[in-house]
Hints:
Three copies of one chain form a homotrimer.
Chain A: H1 13-28, E1 31-35, H2 41-51, E2 54-56, H3 64-67, E3 73-77, H4 86-99, E4 103-106, H5 114-124, E5 130-134, H6 135-143, H7 162-172, E6 175-179, E7 183-186, E8 191-194, H8 207-221, H9 226-245, H10 251-264, H11 267-273, E9 276-278
Parallel strand pairs in A: 1-2, 1-3, 3-4, 4-5, 5-6
Antiparallel strand pairs in A: 6-7, 7-8, 8-9
Helix pairs in contact in A: 1-8, 1-9, 1-11, 2-8, 2-10, 6-7, 8-9, 9-10
Amino acid sequence: MESNSSQVRPTLEWPQKAWNLLAGVRSQSPLIQCITNFVSMDLMANTLLSAGASPAMLHCIEEIPDFTPHAHAVCINIGTLSPSWLPAMKAAAELCSKLGKPWVLDPVAAGASSFRLKACMELVEMKPTVIRGNGSEIVALSKASTGLTKGVDSILESTDAVEAAKLLAQASGAIVAVSGAVDIVTDGKQVIGARNGVAMLQKITATGCSVTALIAAFVAVDKSSALEAVVSALSIFGVAAELGMKMANGPASLRMHLIDSLHGLDEAAVLSHVNIGSLP
Amino acid sequence: MESNSSQVRPTLEWPQKAWNLLAGVRSQSPLIQCITNFVSMDLMANTLLSAGASPAMLHCIEEIPDFTPHAHAVCINIGTLSPSWLPAMKAAAELCSKLGKPWVLDPVAAGASSFRLKACMELVEMKPTVIRGNGSEIVALSKASTGLTKGVDSILESTDAVEAAKLLAQASGAIVAVSGAVDIVTDGKQVIGARNGVAMLQKITATGCSVTALIAAFVAVDKSSALEAVVSALSIFGVAAELGMKMANGPASLRMHLIDSLHGLDEAAVLSHVNIGSLP
Amino acid sequence: MESNSSQVRPTLEWPQKAWNLLAGVRSQSPLIQCITNFVSMDLMANTLLSAGASPAMLHCIEEIPDFTPHAHAVCINIGTLSPSWLPAMKAAAELCSKLGKPWVLDPVAAGASSFRLKACMELVEMKPTVIRGNGSEIVALSKASTGLTKGVDSILESTDAVEAAKLLAQASGAIVAVSGAVDIVTDGKQVIGARNGVAMLQKITATGCSVTALIAAFVAVDKSSALEAVVSALSIFGVAAELGMKMANGPASLRMHLIDSLHGLDEAAVLSHVNIGSLP
């Protein structure tokens, strides 16, 4: 598998790329506006802070014309969606597209209801830079179909969603990432696998939401390649989880050690742990 | 006290019952829809995940017809109530009743305002399977009266609320649980005491809300006896708190160790720690 | 610097004052109503609980006439402001002013949008007992001007905002506190510096919001001098952070140890750590 990576980029480049982008987030401290669900706000803000970014949880449509132009990227997450929040999400997405500013969509439980799926499809049409979901969510978006999900948990492995991800990327123009035992990232042509992370992340709410916000921070500091930024953000979060797992006794201590590790990650740890390669 | 337990069920059965239900939650991973307050969403979702259930924090009325039929139980909590959230709570409750699906009500600070009390009374009329509150909340509901509370904290011990709990159970048809130094559970006739837990839980926000959600998960996997499911859920949460307390230095580390312990609980720990018995 | 402290009060008095107020919060357990942003609710409630206060996160305008009169102080925080929340904030503020009840304003990201700045200015006109913000926020309020902020993070040190704080205190009648490496507190005439705390607090979301709520609890138990209560609350939170930092490996473990330390603080630790003095 690793031997195929050279088709995309030399294997050795990925860990250095990931480190360079984390260092960029730390030095530039990009301002990331998050319009996100109630469950994830705390962990998402702390994830961004621990990575060196500056989070702003602003969801109010009245503020978007003043505020969004100052953000370096926007993260839109539909977790606890209600009709009153959707116009602000669309206004922020539209402004980002107009200003050439990156924005990232997290289509939480996209297939859980027709209301939710419709909202997602409308947002996808507004040209997100990146879409990150689990297998069920990406398949639901790709097929524009409900019923492929169990609440917010995926019933599909990420690797079952590769074709759906490629189709969604081609149709939307977004980089599409599918979280799972291996995180899959595709621009519709090449498919990269990011193999860092631990299974227990699934037992902590909002870790998926938080890595989407981290993707926004990475995309904000690497506008030349959103694909590389997405892969790097997923890997860095996964490495922090692996290091955190060594000290954890369960999901709650993993959550704490994950954030501490993300804050403390140094170049040596990143270079020795990042595990990225292209997939066939 | 323990010798009286035989009136209800053999003392030895309770620990095994509690373990069997936890094992059932882990193996069945019931989907629990939570319409809950903003403060508790994070800890509630993590409590459900650490116990093996699948939480979904969906509060939007537009989604209830699509989503609620797939949930295995629903948890409704009025903590940060506002008028715009109440219709969704009622719609979910009504759908549960129609479909024979269990739902659990947490009447946070029921007596704190007439608006809140009225909302609670309307929900109680919609036939919750279980109502769990602290002493002040249960007395407020039972007497349909405000002024018996200090914010969200109880000014009554659970044991002061036994008669109110029995009356409320008889009037509503719900299993009624009262949290306190001893957790009280009644179906209006028998009264069971669950003696696990630690006092410091009161210094952690949303632990009461979270145990209500855990009750929903237990009720979802034991539809034959909601009473037993409620008692078991309270005990399991209490045992996790006791084990967590051994490693804690204060409320924040207890919160972490509690969740870790709930995730890691094994049969031996449950059988040796569960302390349940009927009350006179 | 310390030698100047005698102009305001003997240096030795401050640590004892801070301890006495913490002891007062623990013994009186004031009921603190918080109308706050979604991000901070969890940490704010846990901060209040660990300090011995009784938090109530109620934001619904329908409940304010019933509930707010029972609160001992109110904390109003505009973090995730939307138009629908503002009337309740104003109703609570107005009721506090009418009843002579202390209330504290946290003007999060005051300069981030004209909507937000206008809301803040309207709240400032309703006579808060205390206003606590970072340097950028206090300067924005003092100059009634947007654009002086980067999201929720300050681009100014607290010491750059001393004159703005004094002007704001004089214009509003509030005690004004500016968080930073040194926390500044002024009544418009004297300026006190509270030097406890650690830099890593800036890497944890909602610590500023939470210390504002702690200020509300301290003001609730010392109505004779809001200035002293504010300085004491900031110091106590800072001392808890310093003690927590000794056990922390990063922002997430600091957050945990901070709350544990706040809960466990004893008189000896307070007396030996509090570092308060007047500023020139």
